[in-house]
Amino acid sequence: MEEGKNSIEFIRREELEKIQVNRLKKTIERANNSPFYKNIFKKEGIHPEDIRCTDDIRKLPFTTREDLRENFPFGFIALPLNKIVRVHTSTGTTGKPKAIFFSKRDVDEAAGLIARCMRMTGAGPGDVFQNMMSYGLFTGGLVFHYGAEKAGVLVIPAGAGNTEKQIELMRDFKTTIVHITPSYALYLADILEEKGIDPEEELNLRIVYLGAEPYSQKTREKIEKIYGVNAFNCYGLSEMNGPGVGFECPLKDGLHIWEDNFILEVVDPLTGEPLPDGKEGELVLTTINREAMPIIRYRTGDITFIYPQVCGCGRTHRKISPIKGRTDDMFIIKGVNVFPSEVERVLMDTPEVARNYQIVIERERSLDIMRIRVEIKKRFFDGSLEHLKELQEKIKSKVKSELMVTPRVELLEPGTLPRTTGKSKRVIDKRRL
Ligand code: ADP
Ligand code: ZN
């Protein structure tokens, strides 16, 4: 494939749309071999010829998580089993797992997209890449691994957890790039601090890929400062191959979606109506370059908006804003919609706050209460009780003025809350227990 300004990344929009239309038609043909879509297409009279422009995608029905679960495990496969070489399942953060199948070509194409993302951020031969995402059924491990090899970097398949070993590997092999969850990056920073290792001075890191869970700009800045790196947002979901579906370019303002592989829409989560660029809603994605398991108009549940303007880097593929959360992460408290990432933004903007927090929602005499349990830097705990009270009030009023909900705030010593090496669970909703 051509590199640089002549590559597919910089293709003219008209050309890109032609590719999309052709690939979408092909996807419908392929999907018609799967029991699930065959049935739907027949019922609704859908044919590849119905597609003349990308907007015609709206003639097709949505696919939901429930569809994937109800047709588990083989209802979506569009190739005979002897042409399928790999299966991944989602981590199941939101219920029973979904199975995603890959042909040999699918594995290769998914790796190609990761390689494209890595090159975009300036990674390449000579770099040492430590993948701290869990290997196995989760896509963050293997799918990223294959892509990194394709990008020509030296890959250390470290997997998640085992922090002592991670540090040893980073030092021995002079790791320059890591792929990690933001919560583990902060946890790892704590351990490095405990050991008296200065990450900026004593490690060789220059790039960090942060993905698998929502986080605020403040958290990114914190991680960049601690490690002395450039941190890029990396978004993906198993249903769409895994990581590398959306990735930040060097401008770090929004994530490019590779539109030669996915058709991108944002819809109103309640009505399913398409929303104009710039308007926040639910991301809907269609695979248009996958053969074993095409998925059409998938309701990701992730909240974002499409950037109306073209990116300054010159890449023509459109960008989405960092994912704010999932529609099902959002909780409603006293009638106000709250995303955990909004609470996180306020906390991480408070200098006294350390690196870990938890939100507990409770009901007290039929009133909803949001309790924020947050770890505070050690030295503030050593100060006077008066100071702690002031800090508690400060966090309370900041949350109130930005989120319109008055929380109860509990200040904790560092290390009190459970720490995670993978995806973190930030919200405990006791109303549902
Ligand atoms: P599960 O749905 O079981 O958690 P996945 O591992 O496929 O399984 O997780 C994909 C989900 O993780 C996405 O739909 C999104 O909600 C979240 N996610 C992944 N990357 C990011 C990111 N960079 N920012 C915010 N959320 C992310
Ligand atoms: Zn860009």
Write a concise keyword list for the protein shown above.
433 residues, binds zinc ion, alpha/beta, single chain, 31% helix, 4-stranded antiparallel sheet, binds adenosine-5'-diphosphate, Rossmann fold, 8-stranded mixed sheet, 2 domains, GMP Synthetase, Chain A, domain 3
Describe this structure in words.
The chain is of the alpha/beta class and 433 residues long. The chain has two domains: 1-324, Rossmann fold (3-Layer(aba) Sandwich); 331-432, ANL, C-terminal domain (GMP Synthetase, Chain A, domain 3, 2-Layer Sandwich), CATH 3.30.300.30. It is 31% helix and 24% strand. The chain contains twelve helices and 20 strands. It has helices spanning 13-31, 35-44, 65-70, 104-120, 139-151, 163-172, 182-194, 199-202, 217-227, 340-348, 378-381, 385-403; strands spanning 84-89, 99-103, 128-131, 154-156, 177-180, 207-211, 230-237, 242-248, 255-257, 262-267, 281-287, 298-304, 319-320, 325-326, 331-333, 336-338, 353-364, 367-376, 408-412, 427-429. The chain has an eight-stranded mixed sheet with strand order 4-3-5-6-7-8-9-13, sandwiched between helices. A four-stranded antiparallel sheet has the order 10-11-12-14. The protein has a four-stranded mixed sheet with strand order 19-18-17-20. The longest helix is centred in the N-terminal third of the chain and has 19 residues, at 13-31.
Q: Secondary-structure blueprint of this entry?
A:
Elements: H1 13-31, H2 35-44, H3 65-70, E1 84-89, E2 99-103, H4 104-120, E3 128-131, H5 139-151, E4 154-156, H6 163-172, E5 177-180, H7 182-194, H8 199-202, E6 207-211, H9 217-227, E7 230-237, E8 242-248, E9 255-257, E10 262-267, E11 281-287, E12 298-304, E13 319-320, E14 325-326, E15 331-333, E16 336-338, H10 340-348, E17 353-364, E18 367-376, H11 378-381, H12 385-403, E19 408-412, E20 427-429
Parallel strand pairs: 3-4, 3-5, 5-6, 6-7, 17-20, 18-19
Antiparallel strand pairs: 1-2, 7-8, 8-9, 9-13, 10-11, 11-12, 12-14, 15-16, 17-18
Helix pairs in contact: 4-5, 7-9, 10-12
Adenosine-5'-diphosphate is lined by residues 90-94, 138, 211-214, 233-238, 300, 302, 323, 326.
